[in-house]
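Design a sequence for this backbone.
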């Protein structure tokens, strides 16, 4: 009996695809947004991080369950969501264009963020380090070895988490204020867009595609479905919760050291300013190293997620070493690296359009996901129950409100 369960225990002791999700959503955008939230509003918006963690766990669990039960990705589920060929083609193209374009735009920020962190630690040219980061990400992706990428990303997430948590410890936040801000929602004046930013950088549509496809590589069909689902749920909850704790650590550091002291600027400026404020170089190095790891993890996962989404939606092979898959991530990575290396640090128009696309896309993808996990022919006994549908419906409502508000604000501003 003990020998029978040894492989399961060995497998269970390892981190899984949940860490890829955490690696994807804790990028330079999250670091910047969380820093500004703390600097401008103190601990008042910490509740938005808690909501983001819960919403992410709800949606990612459904995506992982879909992948494990059907042995296909969310892109394939979107493509098969209707019997009408025209509807299937339109749905597939919508996902492919929005995810592909959006990730290419965000990839610029990922590359620049990682390069900024590296520049703060060792100096050198931002453009040169952007090329280096792009090459490192490309090398890992081109290897086509899921296990290698998983190990690299898990290592980077653990480094990133340690760096941001140590910075928060050095800052010595007021734990009472942090707990109150996390458990008691409030909306200070002019904070709505920041709340949308905190939630929008955590609950992202491309992570649903990444998770649904990657779980099949971690838990092959030789493993009983109920065991795989149990392990996957624990993996998802622990990894996303860790991501939420890291985000709270960034909010806490900014709230403790910058709240009430004027405009913060970028996350890189925050790292540089921590040294005199906290009386030593350690905080600056920790924060810059965290920013480097955050940018690099997102620079790897964003192209991979785009490739899973586009290939699945278009009916192409979603194997890591297939050329359709490699072609998609190569385009995303090349565009992001090229813009970053050119010195165009803030391609505002491109990123604003990408944000609008994501604001529209997340509710749409959530609807497709809810439809898929409620289909008896796809999910059988593992389809959604009433509680899961209620939780998913509430998250859908929130994404509709937030996405609609964000897009309205963009066009009215």
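Sequence:
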């Amino acid at each position: 009996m003990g020998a029978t369960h040894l492989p399961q225990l060995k497998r269970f002791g390892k981190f899984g695809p949940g860490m890829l999700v955490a690696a994807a959503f804790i990028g330079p955008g999250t670091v910047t947004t969380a820093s500004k939230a703390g600097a401008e509003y103190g601990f008042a918006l910490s509740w938005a991080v808690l909501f983001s963690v819960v919403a992410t766990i709800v949606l990612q669990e459904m995506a992982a369950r879909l992948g494990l039960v059907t042995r296909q990705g969310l892109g394939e589920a979107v493509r098969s969501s209707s019997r009408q060929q025209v509807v299937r083609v339109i749905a597939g193209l919508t996902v492919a264009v929005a995810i592909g374009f959006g990730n290419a735009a965000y990839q610029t920020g990922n590359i620049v963020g990682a390069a900024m962190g590296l520049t703060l630690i060792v100096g050198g040219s931002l453009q040169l380090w952007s090329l280096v980061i792009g090459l490192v990400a490309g090398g890992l992706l081109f290897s086509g070895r899921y296990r290698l990428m998983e190990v690299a990303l898990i290592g980077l997430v653990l480094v990133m988490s340690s760096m941001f948590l140590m910075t928060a410890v050095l800052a010595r936040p007021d734990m009472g204020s942090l707990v109150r801000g996390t458990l008691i929602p409030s909306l200070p004046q002019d904070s709505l867009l920041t709340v949308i930013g905190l939630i929008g950088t955590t609950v992202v549509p491309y992570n649903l595609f990444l998770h649904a496809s990657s779980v099949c590589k971690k838990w092959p069909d030789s493993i009983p479905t109920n065991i795989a689902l149990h392990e996957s749920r624990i993996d998802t909850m622990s990894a996303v919760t860790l991501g939420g704790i890291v985000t709270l650590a960034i909010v806490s550091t900014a709230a403790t050291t910058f709240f009430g002291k004027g405009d913060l600027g970028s996350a890189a400026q925050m790292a540089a300013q921590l040294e005199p404020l906290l009386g030593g170089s350690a905080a600056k190095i920790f924060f810059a190293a965290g920013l480097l790891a955050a940018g690099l993890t997102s620079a790897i996962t964003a192209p991979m997620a785009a490739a899973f989404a586009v290939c699945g939606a278009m009916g192409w092979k979603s194997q890591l070493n297939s050329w359709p898959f490699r072609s998609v991530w190569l385009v995303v990575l090349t565009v992001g690296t090229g813009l970053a290396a050119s010195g165009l640090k803030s391609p505002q128009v491109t990123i604003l359009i990408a944000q609008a696309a994501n604001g529209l896309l997340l509710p749409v993808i959530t609807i497709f996901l809810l439809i898929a996990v409620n289909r008896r022919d796809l999910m059988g006994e593992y389809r959604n129950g009433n509680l899961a549908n209620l939780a998913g419906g509430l998250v859908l409502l929130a994404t509709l409100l937030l996405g609609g508000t964000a897009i309205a604000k963009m066009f009215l501003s």
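The chain has one domain: 18-412.
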